[in-house]
Amino acid sequence: MTKSKKKNEWVEWIKAIVIAIVIAFLLRNFVFATSIVDGDSMAPTLENGERVVFNKFSYLIGDPEHGDIVIIQRPQKNYVKRIIGLPGETIEIVNHDIYINGKKYEENFVNKEAKMLTGNFGPIKIPEGSYFVMGDNRAISKDSRNGLGFISRDDIIGRSEFIIFPFNEWALTR
């Protein structure tokens, strides 16, 4: 092999590595990232210590919808919660059932025990540009009812897509 050919081979390898690093950087910063679930507020859907992949790109082209599990960025820590109410809607919780604009909201993601721990709340209208979120484990969840308040659209940094760790828990979170 000639010196020139070896040099070209090294240049090609360096180019490939640089391109791979740039692509990884772009994906990590603009499309996908990971977050660790801290606490039991989303149990049984998400358990403490699980690592989830969230999609940052989805909300660049669309808005959060009812039932989406989102990552909320706050200065002290990130939160993982479920979107319950959208901007302009009126939320009320009566006898453990959630009502959105007076219509009962069907929650197929909350088990009966957790639902029975959802106390009465509201009615309250969600301001434009804000969302109402709750954890699936209602008894211990810090959410829009009791500490997080309404969530600004700018604070929602992505939608949870799937669990990647622990490996035996791989699953979609939607």
Automatic annotation (TrEMBL):
Pfam family, one: Peptidase_S26
A molecular-function term among this protein's GO annotations: signal peptidase activity
Catalytic reaction list: Cleavage of hydrophobic, N-terminal signal or leader sequences from secreted and periplasmic proteins
EC number annotated for this UniProt entry: 3.4.21.89
Signal peptide: none
Location in the cell: Cell membrane; Membrane
Coarse class of the protein's main subcellular location: membrane
Membrane topology type: Single-pass type II membrane protein
CDD domains the UniProt entry points to: S26_SPase_I
Domain Peptidase S26: 10-164
Enzyme class label: hydrolase
The UniProt record lists the keyword Hydrolase: yes
Keywords linked to the UniProt accession: Hydrolase, Protease
Family named by the database record: Belongs to the peptidase S26 family.
Cited PANTHER family: CHLOROPLAST PROCESSING PEPTIDASE, SIGNAL PEPTIDASE I
Xref: NCBIfam families: sigpep_I_bact
Listed name of the protein: Signal peptidase I
Species in which this protein is naturally found: Virgibacillus alimentarius
